[in-house]
Structures are given as structure tokens and as C-alpha cells.
Automatic annotation (TrEMBL):
Protein family according to the UniProt entry: Belongs to the DNA glycosylase MPG family.
One MF annotation (Gene Ontology) recorded for this entry: DNA binding
Name the UniProt record assigns to this protein: Putative 3-methyladenine DNA glycosylase
Keyword vocabulary terms for this entry: DNA damage, DNA repair, Glycosidase, Hydrolase
Organism: Stygiobacter electus
Length: 198
């Protein structure tokens, strides 16, 4: 499998969001590889979306969102959690896709240590390992240090895989926001057990 190219990310946020479903998110930590299939995302477009961090314009916190597609935008929320987003579009667009849920593939033992400080997991813990944006960052050890990292490099990147068919994608309202709540901008793979909220 090949890495997604820069041109993949430099497109409309909704096209990228849907096409990220099924792709393989990879994180290298020294000689270890953590990976998983992206199964749920949310689109954010600062030009019309009041819940997007970029809606208020460029700030020190959100400046990565304005640098153009192919970067990782990591932010801290609720004073305790990190969330990882894929920046899309062109420079100054202010668009990104939040990775909401991942189905773990490789490095599950290390993810389990990062999340639960143990390697033997119950079935419920396996499902809960990466089925939420904060859980993903904890499992994959993504912090503010990874904010702005290029997805074209070799530390964090996304591998191509067959595109999920439109009929297999569910569309819903986003979760945990207080503004622009009615926009149906959450996309997830139908029937996948790792989706955060059905």
C-alpha cells in the first residue's frame, strides 16, 4: 500500500472525509508500528461552520488548519484530551477532518498499554480502544508535539486502500459540539463495531 499523496488532501473537505474511510492510519514510534482502519470522521469547514476552530480566523492555536492539506492538526480540549485532524484543501481554506474512530490493526499491545496500562483486554476494552477521538490520540501517543506534522513524511501517515462505496457510508450529525449542530457532516462505515456512536 502506498501513502496518500498531497493531492488527495488538497480537495474539498467532504470528499476527503468520505474517502478517508477505510484508509489505514499509521504511527511509527521508534521501531514500533501502530496502525488502524479509519471508520468514522467529521468534516469541519471554517468558512461556514461555527463549530470549526478556523471560523474565527487564524490564531496561534488553529494556524495549522490554514496551511493547506496534508498536515495533522492536533488540539487540546476539556483540559485533558488531544484530538487529531487531517487538514484539507488549499492554503487559507481552514478546513479539516476529525478522526473519530479507528479499527485497530497493528501494534494493538502497545495501544493497550498506552490506553489501559495492560496488554490483555476484555472484548469491551478492545472495542473501546480507539472508538473516539481522544482515545485514538491516547492509543497512538499523539500529543501537541505532533501538531503540524506532515502526513507525507514517515512518522504519521495514511496508506491508500480501496474506497468505501457510497452505499456503505452513513451520514449523521456531528457529536459533542454546540454550534452548527444540524450539519450532517459525520461520516462512518455502516455496521462497523468500532464506530463511536451508531
Amino acid at each position: 500500500m502506498q501513502k496518500l499523496s498531497e493531492s488527495f488532501y488538497k480537495r474539498n473537505v467532504h470528499i476527503v472525509a468520505k474517502e478517508l474511510l477505510g484508509k489505514i492510519f499509521v504511527r511509527k514510534i521508534s521501531d514500533k508500528i501502530l496502525s488502524g482502519k479509519i471508520v468514522e470522521v467529521e468534516a469541519y469547514d471554517g468558512s461556514i461552520d461555527e463549530s470549526a476552530h478556523s471560523f474565527i480566523g487564524k490564531t496561534k492555536r488553529n494556524e495549522v488548519m490554514f496551511k493547506g492539506g496534508g498536515l495533522l492538526y492536533v488540539y487540546f480540549t476539556y483540559g485533558m484530551h488531544f484530538c487529531a485532524n487531517i487538514v484539507t484543501g488549499n492554503e487559507n481554506d481552514g478546513c479539516a477532518v476529525l478522526i473519530r474512530s479507528i479499527e485497530p490493526i497493528e501494534g494493538i499491545d502497545l495501544m493497550a498499554i498506552n490506553r489501559f496500562n495492560k496488554t490483555i483486554l476484555t472484548q469491551k476494552e478492545k472495542i473501546n480502544l480507539t472508538n473516539g477521538p481522544a482515545k485514538i490520540c491516547q492509543a497512538f501517543k499523539i500529543t501537541k508535539n505532533e501538531n503540524g506534522i506532515s502526513l507525507l513524511d514517515d512518522v504519521i501517515f495514511i496508506l491508500n486502500s480501496p474506497t468505501i462505496k457510497e452505499k456503505d457510508i452513513s451520514v449523521a450529525k456531528r457529536i459533542g459540539i454546540k454550534k452548527s449542530v444540524d450539519l450532517p457532516w459525520r461520516y462512518f462505515i455502516k455496521g462497523n463495531p468500532y464506530v463511536s456512536k451508531k
